[in-house]
Structure formats: structure tokens, C-alpha cells
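Per reviewer request, we include the raw input and output of the structure prediction for the construct analysed in the revised manuscript.
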Amino acid sequence: MVSRLPVDVGVALWQRARAENHVRDIVDQARTVHDLGVPAVWFGQRQDHDATTVAAVVGAQVPGLRVGTSVVPLGPRHPLVLGGQAQTANAASGGRFTLGVGVAGPERDRRTFGVRVARPIGHLREALAVLDDYRTTGTVDRGDGAVVARTAAPSAIAGGEGFGLLVAALGAQSLRAAGELADGSIPFLTGPRTLADRIVPGLLRGSGGEPRRVVAGVVVVVTDEPDRVRAAARPALDFYTTVPSYRSVFAAEGIAHPIELALVGDEEHVARGLRRYVDAGATELYATQTDLGGATDQARTWRLLGALSRDRSAGRRSALH
């Protein structure tokens, strides 16, 4: 029998095939995982839905469940607009929302969204400063930057303050910004070695030594057929081998392909793998692509995630800052 981990273990959700209504289907899944004991759900930004809106709806419909985005790209989204969305999601969820953001990179922003971000780290720092204003002071007073030309307006809504703020950071500069201006990082496909050697130290340099949230995303499938599931998962992860920042992570982990970071196997195998992330400095975890083995394996995976999450009776804040 597996024992609980000392951290929360969430799950990434998205619409199932042939669902009659995209959002209602995700809400139904969220209710299911919450009933199993999963404390948090995360939503990736996609071309066909808005992750922050989905998080707001789920947070309003499933009391007690924490919701977040992993992640919203900053390039095509102005922080003044995104800050309003984040406040709205936080109010709708009763203060249980975390905004995860990231910088896709100049070429990807240009190719996908038709926008050009000349200085990605400068853009990130300014956007994080604006978003931090939203959640802390309720007034954005910024100007003369590359992102915000000039504003000094009240920006708070009742119940919207205090949302969590995380950055999908891998590089030294983005990690420093995340440690300085946000609650921490929400890395995906970064193994325990990278967490311990790069992510956690980078955040601490930015925070001046103050602990930060590290919400590690891991591909997880509990199954009795690991070879079959790995074969199905490999093409889904091929994209990350083309991204320089991820290639550097894979090199540091000593692997050739991100499938080697996937935790695919029985309950004991997965639990041991997740514990290595905790030992490396992860303060929270979330499992993604849990559907790769099919519906039966996904249900089994969700049951394990609920069993592993720390006891809810321990009494904790919905978002650790």
C-alpha cells in the first residue's frame, strides 16, 4: 500500500473525446477527481479554449477544489487584461486560483500569434510586476515600459485579491524573475535532477533565500501495460525535443527523449517516482496526460493521486505564498 506524500498532488484536465459540451465535461471530471481526494486541477492554454475562464467555471462549480493555469503564454496577452481575468477567476473560485504564465519565445510568438516580443525577459519582468500589483495592492501604477505605456488606475475587484502567481521558468533569468516577482515556478518535463540543481537554486537567488512554490508537472499513467502506454505517449512528447530550453534539461537529466521522464507503471512505481520530485524540492505536483493508457488506467491513476495527496485535515491555505 502506498503512503501519502507530504505535498498536494493535482491533475491536469482537458475535454474528453466526443463530449457533448467542452466545459461541462471538464467540470464533471473535476468533480470526479475532487471526490477521489485530488486537491487541485490545472488547465493548459489551448487554441480552442481559454484556460483562465475554464478555471473560473470549475472553481465556482466545485467548492474546495483549487484551480490553476499551466500555463498562459504572455506574448499575446496584455497583463492589464490578464490581471483582470485572474482576479475574476480568483473571486469565482473563492480565492483558490493560481495563474501560471510563461514566455513562449520570440519566434513561436511571431509564428503562432503574429506578435513580436523583442526582449522576452524584460517583457516577463514587467508583466509579472503588473500582475503582482493586481493581486497585492489592487492598483496598477506603471508606465513608460515596453508593455504598459501609462496607467494609474484602481484595478481591484472584491474577492479577486491574492491569487497565486507562478512562472514556467527554466532559464537563469526567468527563474530569478519568478523568485523575485512571483510565488515560484511551475515546471513541466523537468526531472528531479533539474529541480534540485537548477529550478530551486534559481528561484532562491531571485527571492533572496525565501522559499518559493515549485509545482512540478509530470506525465503519469498507472497501468499494468507500461510498454503499450509508453509507445502511445512518445509521439505526444516529441515536440519538446525541438525546443532548446527543454533539450538542455534533457541533457542535464542524461536522457535522450522526454518519455524517459514519464512515470508509467503500477502504483508503487509511480509513487516512488513522484517522491523523488518531492525530495528534489517540489512543493506540489500535478499529473498530466493521464488518459494515454485509456479510461480504465486513467481512473486508476486518479485514484492513486487522491490517495497520495497529503491529508486535507492538516489545515492549509489554498495557495501558499
